[in-house]
Amino acid sequence: MAALGWLTPRSRSATARSVLAGEASAEAARKSSQDPQDVQGAQDARNARNARNAQDTAAEEPEFPVLGDDKAAAFFDLDNTVMQGAALFHFGRGLYKRKFFETRDLAKFAWQQAWFRLAGVEDPEHMQDARDSALSIVKGHRVAELQSIGEEIYDEYMAERIWPGTRALAQAHLDAGQRVWLVTAAPVEIATVIARRLGLTGALGTVAESVDGIYTGKLVGEPLHGPAKAEAVRALAAAEGLDLARCAAYSDSHNDIPMLSLVGHPYAINPDSKLRKHAREKDWRLRDYRTGRKAAKVGIPAAAGVGAVAGGTAAAIALHRRRR
Question: Which amino acids are annotated catalytic?
Fold first, then answer.
């Protein structure tokens, strides 16, 4: 993969593995992204079906997103920004249902998911454990198999956990004719499924190594997390001819400050305490869909927050009981 050395300067926290992960993710995202005409067709159908809801949940901020600006795009973190909870944990539950691993592993996924939803922030040790588990589980399986299963898991565990308010923000960018990408540490195959089901342009995600369509159990670079997300956005923007100063980014986590700092329009969505403090210091816009309260410097109005705190654990326990 060609080095993108002519890009804008990187933060000191970026490593060679971050750059490799970002560039690999950008390349995978471009290969799997939807054709603009396909996106427009799906968007037109969705607009006709949801016109009334769109009026209730979203309104364009004056002059933003800018209509017809083909140099602008939007980048959305996934976990706790677009979707309640962590996609990787939902994916793990789906794999357990299909007997990819045993009950004791499900208990770990359930506990980590409950902690994530209670705390609203990522625990690095939990996330590393989840990634290591996922890699060992998918090793030897075909990429096409996991993509197909990802479609089913989305319907089973993820579709009902999309935040309506954040979905409306993404729709505002699509309505303005801009491209919209998910940016997540989740496997790029799963992220792509979610992006397609939401009618978005595509997704940047962690790239797992595969040979002849079969997973090796290794990553390309490192997980798409923190500085690696910024590298992926930087690489994709260069390849797509985007002006980052005209782009927007949305996240809940202080880990994504490198990505948010790249763009001209950063938004803190359901922010953790560190991101909330940083956003206020930088005069970034905030929105919290967990409580429905207005936050400082609100851009587009919110829809009502939804979701039970311990849903992941309850569902896991119920699933285990049904299998006994």
Answer: 77, 79
